[in-house]
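Dear Dr. H.,

I hope your travels went smoothly. While you were away I took the liberty of generating a structure for the chain from your last submission, since the lab meeting agenda had it listed for discussion. I wanted you to have the full record in hand beforehand rather than looking at slides cold. The sequence, exactly as received, is reproduced here:
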Amino acid sequence: FFTREGYFKKITPQSLRMSGEQKLKDGDEVVYTKETTNSAELLFFTNHAQVYKSRASEFADTKASVLGDYVASKLEMEEGEVPLFMTVTVDYHGYMLFFYQNGKCAKIPLASYMTKQLKAYSDKEELAAMLHIEEETELAVFTSGGTGGPRLILVGSALIPEKATRDTAGINMVTLKKNDRIAKV
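The corresponding predicted structure, in token form, is as follows:
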């Protein structure tokens, strides 16, 4: 379990069945859950355009009644650096999609994150969303609504060209009106 505030909990299925509600900080919420094994790799993408890798086995089993590990401290991130997104992989299959508020999108093979380098994505534009997809899919892109009002655009991920470099600015995916931005995907 990974929360919006950057906490991670690894709970065994037996402990999860026996426990009650998840304990979280006030205002926090679980944003990602995945059933996996201790040998899985965890990738934490941060607000400093970095990625930190860890194995699930490096985190202790816990219960739903505790907050869990604060990832920024556990992985010794820089001052002010916080995890924004987490994904789990055993085979580095699929793609990371990075959507920028200026209407661009970068599609990076997850396999490019197998190396030790920390740079995860371009920090030249403000990030709107990031996703890990294991296979091509349809995406709903919502704009904030500049002069033309909010819009919903459906995009097939297969139409977004794959880029080899992780700090690519991406391709123009949505033509935005004045004062418009990608709000969510």
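Two observations you may find useful: The two ends are 21 Å apart (CA to CA). The first strand starts at residue 2 and ends at 3.

With kind regards,
E. W.
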